[in-house]
């Protein structure tokens, strides 16, 4: 019997090694890994420079606590600040914790408690971020939720107008809803957000936990639009597999997070930050995010082309290398079939095949994946 709580449905694959875009199992079978550890391995398995950076730190010291100042925290924060335009950074261990920090900071800075989030959003599994998450299935069974959060339809201008008022501390949302099914924010909605924000004084928190670190073809997904959020949160891709999260905010918010106001024992741990620092240095290499944008466009265009006659495909959408193939039926059997062929993909909701390849994926690997997907999702055609 297993001594683990059965919180996860597990796949029947035993990982043995990872290299670049490939995961190799105990039997030696190679899988093209388009899950990237759920949007984490943006630079692929065991990226040599990131591995080297972590190994170096392992040999120096592992942990000190935040009673000490660490140059690697300053350097990584400064890289995030330069990339995002947000001057202050708090390091956490996960996405949910980064969002917790954002929620606490927004409440403290505004002195208000209402936070607007969207249906189909995903913000984490802690008590506050579960309540922030606009999906019933995440909250079921846990009783009374925090009353701080009010949900609106994603992209609904009317809902936003109705919900936002002078009691609103913040509006928190994803630019592309990841777990919720690859739904992309509309420019009109962003415009309205800006308007509401200046009218009510509500802070804008962008959850970039899945969309950040180059995933959508920009360093951060908000950079596709002409906006400057008050706060962004990061995790997943930030450590390329080493647990680390971050919340970045405007300079004016610094005074509300003074000594003793918030903290974490492990947050900003030097091993985590050795990986984050190396990740940011890869991310900022000349032409890198542009290459992600181009590969994303190629992937989406080719999938649309190959699958235009598929009887099971409803819609293909995405931004950069964050792509969803919405099916007219349950996606689970197709994920299984793709696994058999050697391609690992993710679900998002019941009907969506989600692709999150490493951003370092090659065109040859993309084409191989497209071939598997075209074969698998065209199958129904032969049956019918
Ligand atoms: C994964 C995810 C989170 C939660 O991150 P954890 O590290 O699992 O706590 C929060 N927000 C978004 C958008 C995510 O995709």
From TrEMBL:
<dbReference type="InterPro" id="IPR015421">
    <property type="entry name" value="PyrdxlP-dep_Trfase_major"/>
</dbReference>
<keyword id="KW-0032">Aminotransferase</keyword>
<keyword id="KW-0963">Cytoplasm</keyword>
<dbReference type="InterPro" id="IPR004636">
    <property type="entry name" value="AcOrn/SuccOrn_fam"/>
</dbReference>
<feature type="binding site">
    <location>
        <position position="265"/>
    </location>
    <ligand>
        <name>pyridoxal 5'-phosphate</name>
    </ligand>
</feature>
<feature type="binding site">
    <location>
        <position position="264"/>
    </location>
    <ligand>
        <name>N(2)-acetyl-L-ornithine</name>
    </ligand>
</feature>
<feature type="modified residue" description="N6-(pyridoxal phosphate)lysine">
    <location>
        <position position="236"/>
    </location>
</feature>
<feature type="binding site">
    <location>
        <begin position="95"/>
        <end position="96"/>
    </location>
    <ligand>
        <name>pyridoxal 5'-phosphate</name>
    </ligand>
</feature>
<dbReference type="Pfam" id="PF00202">
    <property type="entry name" value="Aminotran_3"/>
</dbReference>
<feature type="binding site">
    <location>
        <position position="122"/>
    </location>
    <ligand>
        <name>pyridoxal 5'-phosphate</name>
    </ligand>
</feature>
<dbReference type="InterPro" id="IPR015424">
    <property type="entry name" value="PyrdxlP-dep_Trfase"/>
</dbReference>
<dbReference type="GO" id="GO:0003992">
    <property type="term" value="F:N2-acetyl-L-ornithine:2-oxoglutarate 5-aminotransferase activity"/>
</dbReference>
<protein>
    <recommendedName>
        <fullName>Acetylornithine aminotransferase</fullName>
        <ecNumber>2.6.1.11</ecNumber>
    </recommendedName>
</protein>
<dbReference type="InterPro" id="IPR049704">
    <property type="entry name" value="Aminotrans_3_PPA_site"/>
</dbReference>
<comment type="pathway">
    <text>Amino-acid biosynthesis; L-arginine biosynthesis; N(2)-acetyl-L-ornithine from L-glutamate: step 4/4.</text>
</comment>
<keyword id="KW-0055">Arginine biosynthesis</keyword>
<keyword id="KW-0808">Transferase</keyword>
<keyword id="KW-0663">Pyridoxal phosphate</keyword>
<feature type="binding site">
    <location>
        <begin position="207"/>
        <end position="210"/>
    </location>
    <ligand>
        <name>pyridoxal 5'-phosphate</name>
    </ligand>
</feature>
<dbReference type="InterPro" id="IPR005814">
    <property type="entry name" value="Aminotrans_3"/>
</dbReference>
<dbReference type="InterPro" id="IPR050103">
    <property type="entry name" value="Class-III_PLP-dep_AT"/>
</dbReference>
<comment type="similarity">
    <text>Belongs to the class-III pyridoxal-phosphate-dependent aminotransferase family. ArgD subfamily.</text>
</comment>
<comment type="subunit">
    <text>Homodimer.</text>
</comment>
<keyword id="KW-0028">Amino-acid biosynthesis</keyword>
<dbReference type="InterPro" id="IPR015422">
    <property type="entry name" value="PyrdxlP-dep_Trfase_small"/>
</dbReference>
<feature type="binding site">
    <location>
        <position position="125"/>
    </location>
    <ligand>
        <name>N(2)-acetyl-L-ornithine</name>
    </ligand>
</feature>
